[in-house]
């Protein structure tokens, strides 16, 4: 299984008049999403599923991929790392799951997968962390295949 965590690109600031889930991408965020989507489209396997938080900025980020995606309310702002792994069916799903979500959730998932303990690891806006699950000598292993930020895509 491959699990790709993609943090939404840069979004406008919230405030008293704008609910957090309604924040949209900035012009820079739209560029970041397009850059990362180009890289992902060149590397994603054919058997993939894209799951997205219901927040507008995550849907806009997903739209840059120009692939079908499913909005999953449980991936919204404040989702837990365990929610993400359960929804992705990690590590037993066959194929690739792309999760487009938020901080600090995605950083906590990355820490849990690599270090075995949730921690507040930073994931840059628009950044991708690509993990693979494999079994070697009857032992489950998590492999970090790529970490990429939009400026390098």
Q: Can you put this structure into words, describing what you see?
A:
It is built from 4 helices and 6 strands; from the N terminus they run E-H-E-H-E-H-E-H-E-E. It is α/β, with parallel strands linked by helices and 153 residues long. It has one domain (2-10, 24-152): Rossmann fold (3-Layer(aba) Sandwich). It has a 6-stranded mixed β-sheet with strand order 3-2-4-1-5-6. The radius of gyration is 15 Å and the shape is globular. The two termini are 23 Å apart. 37% of the residues are buried. The model has no long low-confidence stretch (mean pLDDT 96).
Descriptive tags:
alpha/beta, 153 residues
What's the layout of helices and strands?
Layout: E1 2-7, H1 27-43, E2 48-52, H2 56-63, E3 70-71, H3 81-88, E4 96-101, H4 105-115, E5 128-136, E6 139-148
Parallel strand pairs: 1-4, 2-3, 2-4
Antiparallel strand pairs: 1-5, 5-6
Strand content: 15-25%
Question: What do the pLDDT scores average to?
Answer: 96
Uncertain stretches of 5 or more adjacent residues: none
Strand order of the largest sheet: 3-2-4-1-5-6
Report the total helices: 4
Quick synopsis:
The chain is an alpha/beta fold and 153 residues long. The chain has four helices and six strands. α3 crosses α4 (105-115).
């Amino acid at each position: 299984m491959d699990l790709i965590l993609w943090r939404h690109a840069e979004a406008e600031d919230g405030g008293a008049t704008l609910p957090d889930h309604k924040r949209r991408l900035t012009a820079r965020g739209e560029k970041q999403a397009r850059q990362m989507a180009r890289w992902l489209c060149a590397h994603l396997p054919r058997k993939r599923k894209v799951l997205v938080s219901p927040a507008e900025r995550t849907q806009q980020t997903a739209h840059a991929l120009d692939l079908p995606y499913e909005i999953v309310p449980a991936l919204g702002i404040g989702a837990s790392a365990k929610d993400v792994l359960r929804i992705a069916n990690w590590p037993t799903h066959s194929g690739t799951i792309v999760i487009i979500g938020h901080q600090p959730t995605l950083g906590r998932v990355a820490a849990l997968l690599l270090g075995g303990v949730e921690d507040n690891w930073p994931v840059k806006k628009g950044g991708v962390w690509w993990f693979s699950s494999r079994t070697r000598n009857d032992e489950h292993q998590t492999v970090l295949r790529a970490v990429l930020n939009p400026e390098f895509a």
